[in-house]
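ZP: hey, is the zinc ion complex queued? I don't see it on the tracker
AM: it wasn't, my bad. submitting now with these inputs:
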Amino acid sequence: MDYHAFLSQFPDTYIGRGRTDRREIALTFDDGPGLATSALLAILREYDVQATFFCLGEKARGVPDMVRAIARDGHEVGNHGFTHRDVRALDPETFWMTEVLPARSLLEDVAGTPVALFRPPFGEISPAQTARLAEEGVTLVGWSIDPRDWDEVEAKDHAGRVVRDVLEQVHPGAIVLLHDGDEGERARPAIVEIVRHVVPALWAMGFSFVTAGRLWEAR
Ligand SMILES: [Zn+2]
């Protein structure tokens, strides 16, 4: 079943978009921290925009200062699991004990903030795993706009294409899926340029930026 159709059956656990009566949207960055994260934080600071970073435990472990910097800049730290695997083959308890809990503990330790949000790698999670997270009071965060910023990164005008995709799909309450994790061994090349252009364009359309947690609280 489609990820969003399936998870929309769990309205008390899952958010795929915010309210549609406010021109608020959430930018989310997955798979980091990565080599591009520091420059991304700088542009977000320049714009005074707060976002949500779904960090991986195995990445965060090597760069705890970067997780601290994310939190210190007023961004929200979310949990993207420990190893970025398709977790559906794991029984719910193993999933919780090996992927969700260790990443959350590590992120909470280094960020010094509670980490209440979880986004499954690839957006893939089983009904039993979802029920396990619901039991623990974890909120699952999906997305409503996927501009595929990981796709054809070498293409000419890749950043421009991603920006246009966001602007074409944008709607009140949007949750935008982007990535600051590395592209193999390299810094994700275009994320800073994408953000540099998409934020002012969205402002011009009357949108403001909030964290995914804020969209959840206001739902
Ligand atoms: Zn991911």
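AM: back. The chain has nine helices and eight strands.
ZP: great, adding it to the tracker
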